[in-house]
């Protein structure tokens, strides 16, 4: 089997695992799902919350010059004119002149590709998708139209190939605000959280008495009507961003840009991602507002892809908001006795994409030994303990002899400090396996020896080894390993 096929299989296995073990479900699955929209299950929400909490604490708690905000998803429509999203945030579409119907080009191409699949021509399907993606990257709209003609793609309504030029289609979702249709205004679901920070720059700077250099951090939903929505939670239409805008003196931006690149790479390493799987991808072609930009890429099973963007955004956004709002957005720098529009370094990471990175990195298969002593494959999620959905599972070895009472007492004590679960059904090996599959780093078993000497068995997820510990030491032993503090200290 080719390496690509192997990687594709591995990725599909991880996606299936995510569903089976309560991490991620397709949205509205009973109605066959909604493309590129996903729901997080009982374990997924814990992992995602832990991840967000780690990002939030690492930004706000560890940097005394960064504060947070939580801006609304809906914003004044002029925000998106000022930011450039109304005019420049596009993907291609095409109209059929006979039926007057409009299509997203990716839908037509995908339809043709699935036709090839049905005809048992998977290579043709792949070739078509690859060619389309290449042209899309180059924004070569004329060649995209030619591809549609060469592929003899016809309008499903008129049956003709009488197509217009390919034109750009805005990725923002719009809706109406106001109850009466005639009075209603079109507003957008924000395509990035950053603008909520820019428009609140002065509010935060003044109310929190911040002095430049300082940052504003935010975690929140963003929405994009993505044209190529594939690869699970990698590219979604509704997703969450964790963004930080760092406001600085003009002229210092390249220095700060380098600093933030280093800080952010260290953060990814603290997540347990090996250095060889992370790399910077420097943007050759810069957005009009940036004077330096790069991505932190992770080696996903489907290739090395962006997880986070670090951008030196100059004073573009604040200046544009000043221009459009006609309100002065300036900072008076006491130190140099000058007023200026601050420059900005942005760090922007998708929570869902980062979650997917963690899942891909954690999925591990090992040769293990089953209860009968036979060799068998063991699957577990090697999540770092502070992020694991469940930190500890407490088990009585058997459901009798007073063991459950003792185990419940320990569980009731631990649950105030960390996410713990108690389970007494099924054989102990099966209970360990269930915890391995969701990434629980530690299991604590109360057995007959506990009744004699008050020690318990601690079982480690990663090598399935076991040792005994006095029951009164269990809480501190766990806290040292599973707390967010332990993880934050890695950044010191
Ligand atoms: N404010 C800058 C900004 O939004 P971006 O590169 O478009 O920059 C930043 O997005 C991050 O948001 C990406 O690195 C990615 O992690 C995440 N992201 C963007 N679009 C996404 C999508 N459709 N689905 C999931 N995550 C996405």
Estimated radius of gyration? 26 Å
Q: How big a fraction of the residues is strand?
A: 25-35%
CATH architecture of the domain at 3-74 and 211-358: 2-Layer Sandwich
Bound molecules: glycyl-adenosine-5'-phosphate
Give the CATH topology of the domain at 3-74 and 211-358: BirA Bifunctional Protein, domain 2
Helix fraction by DSSP (H/I, runs of at least 4): 25-40%
Q: What is the number of strand segments?
A: 23
CATH superfamily of the domain at 3-74 and 211-358: Bira Bifunctional Protein, Domain 2
Spans of 5+ residues with little confidence (pLDDT < 50)? none
Mean pLDDT: 94
- In angstroms, what separates the terminal alpha carbons? 44 Å
What form results from the Cα inertia axes?
Answer: globular
Would you state the CATH class of the domain at 3-74 and 211-358?
A: Alpha Beta
**Based on helices, strands and strand pairing, what is the structural class?**
alpha+beta
Separate helix tally: 17
Strand order of the largest sheet: 3-9-10-16-13-12-11
User: Main beta sheet: strand number and arrangement?
Assistant: 7 strands, mixed
């Amino acid at each position: 089997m080719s390496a690509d096929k192997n990687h594709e299989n591995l990725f599909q296995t991880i996606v299936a695992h995510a569903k089976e073990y309560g991490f991620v479900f397709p949205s509205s699955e009973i109605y066959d799902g909604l493309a590129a929209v996903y729901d997080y299950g009982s374990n997924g929400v814990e992992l995602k919350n832990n991840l967000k909490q780690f990002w939030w604490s690492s930004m706000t708690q560890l940097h005394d010059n960064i504060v947070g905000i939580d801006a609304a998803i809906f914003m004044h429509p002029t925000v998106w004119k000022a930011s450039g999203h109304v005019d420049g945030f596009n993907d291609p579409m095409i109209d059929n002149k006979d039926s007057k119907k409009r299509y997203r080009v990716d839908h037509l191409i995908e339809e043709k590709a699935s036709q090839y699949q049905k005809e048992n021509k998977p290579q043709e399907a792949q070739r078509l998708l690859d060619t389309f993606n290449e042209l899309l990257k180059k924004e070569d709209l004329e060649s995209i139209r030619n591809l549609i003609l060469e592929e003899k793609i016809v309008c499903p309504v008129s049956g003709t190939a009488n197509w217009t030029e390919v034109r750009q289609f805005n990725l923002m979702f719009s809706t109406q605000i106001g109850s009466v249709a005639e009075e209603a205004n079109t507003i957008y679901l924000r395509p990035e959280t950053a603008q909520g920070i820019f428009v609140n720059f002065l509010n935060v700077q003044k109310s929190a008495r911040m002095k430049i250099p300082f940052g504003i951090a935010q975690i929140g939903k963003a929405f994009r009507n993505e044209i190529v929505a594939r690869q699970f939670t990698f590219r979604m239409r509704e997703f969450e961003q964790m963004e930080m805008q760092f406001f600085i003196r003009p002229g210092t931006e390249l220095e700060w840009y380098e600093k933030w690149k280093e800080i952010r790479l260290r953060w990814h390493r603290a997540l347990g991602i090996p250095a060889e799987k992370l790399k910077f991808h420097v943007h050759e072609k810069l957005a009009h507002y940036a004077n330096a930009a790069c991505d932190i890429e992770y080696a996903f099973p489907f290739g090395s892809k962006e997880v986070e963007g670090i951008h030196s955004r100059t004073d573009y956004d604040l200046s544009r908001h000043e221009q459009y709002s006609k309100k002065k957005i300036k900072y008076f720098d006491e130190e140099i006795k000058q007023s200026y529009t601050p420059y900005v370094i942005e760090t922007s990471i998708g929570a869902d994409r980062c979650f997917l990175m963690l899942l891909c990195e954690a999925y591990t298969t090992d040769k293990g030994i089953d209860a009968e002593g036979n060799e068998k494959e063991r699957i577990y999620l090697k999540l770092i303990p502070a992020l694991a959905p469940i930190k500890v599972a407490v088990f009585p070895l058997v459901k009798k002899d007073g063991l459950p009472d003792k185990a419940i007492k320990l569980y009731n004590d631990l649950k105030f400090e960390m996410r713990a679960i108690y389970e007494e059904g099924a054989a102990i090996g099966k209970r360990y396996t269930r915890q391995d599959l969701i990434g629980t780093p530690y299991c604590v078993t109360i057995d007959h020896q506990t009744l004699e000497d008050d020690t318990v068995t601690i079982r480690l997820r990663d090598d399935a080894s076991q040792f005994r510990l006095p029951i009164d030491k269990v809480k501190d032993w766990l806290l040292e390993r599973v707390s967010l503090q332990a993880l934050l200290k890695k950044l010191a």
